[in-house]
Write a structure and sequence with these properties.
There is one protein chain. This protein has helices spanning 2-16, 22-39, 47-52, 73-86; strands at 62-65, 68-70, 97-107, 110-122, 128-142, 145-155. It has 172 residues and is an alpha+beta fold. It has a 6-stranded mixed sheet with strand order 2-1-6-5-4-3.
C-alpha cells in the first residue's frame, strides 16, 4: 500500500515537473487564453488558418466531437475545413464570444482549458442565428507556442428558437 502511494506521488510529481510560482501559473493561463481568443477571433482575416494553427504540424492529435474520435492531425484539419465549407461560409457578420474560459496549468509545458462559446451571426436569409457549445483542449508547449494535442467539443443542443438553434450542415 505504501509502495502504491509512493508510486502515485512520484508519478504526480513527474507530471507536474516542478512547482510553479503563482506568477508563472498566471502567465501561462494568460498565454493559453490569449491563444484561444486569437485563434477564434472571427473579426480578423484568415480565420481558418488561425484555427488550424492551434494544432501541431505533425504527430497525433486526439479530437472527440459529434460522437466520434479521430487521432490524426489530418482528420482534425479536415473537420475544421468541413465546418468552414458547410457552415462558416454561410455566417454573415459572425462574432465568436467566449462566455467562460477555465485554464488549469498542469506544468510549465502543459495546460488544459475548458470554455463555453457562442457565435451570433446572420444566416444566408439575414435571420439572426447563434451557434454555440463547449470545448476542452489540452495544450502542450511546442517551442515558443502552445498547441492543442487533445480536444473535446460539444455543441449546444438544438432548440426551436431560431436565434439559439444549431444549424445542420446542409441548411445553415
Amino acid at each position: 500500500m505504501r509502495i502504491s502511494a509512493l508510486l502515485i506521488l512520484m508519478t504526480l510529481a513527474a507530471c507536474v515537473g516542478g512547482s510553479l510560482s503563482s506568477s508563472d501559473t498566471a502567465t501561462i493561463r494568460a498565454e493559453i487564453e490569449q491563444t484561444m481568443r486569437e485563434a477564434y477571433d472571427l473579426s480578423r482575416p484568415n480565420q481558418l488558418d488561425r484555427m488550424l494553427a492551434l494544432y501541431p504540424t505533425s504527430g497525433r492529435v486526439v479530437s472527440a466531437n459529434t460522437g466520434a474520435v479521430s487521432t490524426s492531425i489530418d482528420s482534425v484539419g479536415n473537420g475544421i475545413r468541413e465546418f468552414w465549407h458547410y457552415v462558416g461560409v454561410n455566417m454573415r457578420n459572425p462574432k465568436w464570444e467566449w462566455t467562460t474560459i477555465h485554464v488549469d496549468v498542469l506544468s510549465r509545458d502543459a495546460a488544459v482549458a475548458t470554455g463555453t462559446y457562442r457565435i451570433p451571426h446572420l444566416n444566408p436569409s439575414n435571420q439572426p442565428h447563434v451557434l454555440g457549445g463547449a470545448m476542452t483542449m489540452v495544450f502542450r508547449r511546442q517551442g515558443d507556442r502552445w498547441v492543442v494535442i487533445q480536444e473535446h467539443l460539444s455543441d449546444t443542443p438544438q432548440t426551436s428558437d431560431s436565434t439559439n438553434s444549431m444549424p445542420t450542415h446542409d441548411n445553415q
